[in-house]
């Protein structure tokens, strides 16, 4: 990975980091903890389907999902690199991480858009 | 111009101490650092959940109900509580670090770190409140 690419990947990482920090805790808490435990009653199917299928929601959700993957890719890449001292696998790790993020984004685009 | 008979500069091998793989368990700050970086796994997991949520909603009411049923399985609950903990840690560390990454100046006055972080927290609570209100009322 050439040095000149770093700013590009960092921007995706930073955008994903900021968006997920703002949006994900509330969503995760409501959908996966509060509702299954019966603390709150989630919206009806009709309402959630309307909201999620709205074109604007789909675009925003796609952006959030895709940037989440790129956020992961950048952080995970350097965690493997620094944390596990895998310096000799530098390029392979970069390809796997960013490739994974691109693949995840394509799946998200296929499902959402 | 292209001469193969040049000489190469002597380039001594840098001395680097071999670091053990688990170098970071020795201090709490390092563990915190690795944990912060690993919160990105929870972020990616949440993204996958969102795709699954979309899939189930597209497939109809039964599939959606089935997905909610699946989320109430104890194993899923444990995973999701851990994921929530990680994502919260991500948010907090992100907001605390953002003043250092983003220096805001108004004229000669540098906006204090606390105000930038505070603004982030205010935005976070506002967004979370809107999401929660929409979810509960919707």
TrEMBL record, chain A:
One Gene Ontology term, aspect cellular component: membrane
Keyword set, alphabetical order: Cell membrane, Membrane, Transmembrane, Transmembrane helix
Chain segments annotated as transmembrane: 7-31, 51-72, 92-112
Pfam families, sorted: Fumarate_red_D
GO biological process: fumarate metabolic process
InterPro entries to which the protein is assigned, alphabetical: Fumarate_red_D, SQR/QFR_C/D
Protein name: Fumarate reductase subunit D
Organism listed in the record: marine metagenome
TrEMBL record, chain B:
InterPro entries per the UniProt record, alphabetical: Fumarate_red_C, SQR/QFR_C/D
GO (cellular component) term, any one: membrane
Transmembrane segments: 28-54, 75-95, 115-137
Nucleotidyltransferase as UniProt keyword: no
Key words of the record: Cell membrane, Membrane, Transmembrane, Transmembrane helix
Protein name: Fumarate reductase subunit C
């Amino acid at each position: 990975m050439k040095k000149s690419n770093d700013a590009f990947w960092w921007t995706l990482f930073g955008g994903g980091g900021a968006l997920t920090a703002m949006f994900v805790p509330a969503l995760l808490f409501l959908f996966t903890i509060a509702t299954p435990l019966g603390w709150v009653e989630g919206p009806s199917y009709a309402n959630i389907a309307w909201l999620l299928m709205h074109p604007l929601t789909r675009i925003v959700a796609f952006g959030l999902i895709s940037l989440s993957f790129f956020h992961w890719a950048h952080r995970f890449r350097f965690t493997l690199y620094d944390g596990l001292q895998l310096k000799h696998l530098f390029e392979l790790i970069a390809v796997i991480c960013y490739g994974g993020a691109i693949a995840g984004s394509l799946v998200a685009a296929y499902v959402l858009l | 111009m292209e001469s193969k008979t040049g000489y190469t500069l002597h380039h001594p091998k840098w001395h680097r101490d071999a670091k053990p793989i688990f170098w970071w368990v020795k201090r709490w700050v390092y563990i915190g650092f690795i944990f912060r970086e690993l919160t990105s796994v929870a972020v990616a997991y949440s993204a996958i959940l969102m795709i699954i949520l979309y899939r189930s909603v597209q497939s109809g009411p039964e599939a959606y109900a089935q997905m909610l049923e699946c989320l109430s399985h104890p194993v899923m609950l444990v995973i999701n509580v851990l994921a929530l903990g990680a994502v919260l840690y991500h948010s907090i560390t992100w907001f605390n670090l953002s003043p250092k990454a983003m220096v805001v100046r108004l004229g000669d006055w540098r906006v204090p770190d606390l105000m930038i972080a505070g603004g982030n927290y205010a935005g976070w609570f506002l967004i979370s409140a809107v999401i929660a209100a929409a979810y509960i009322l919707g």
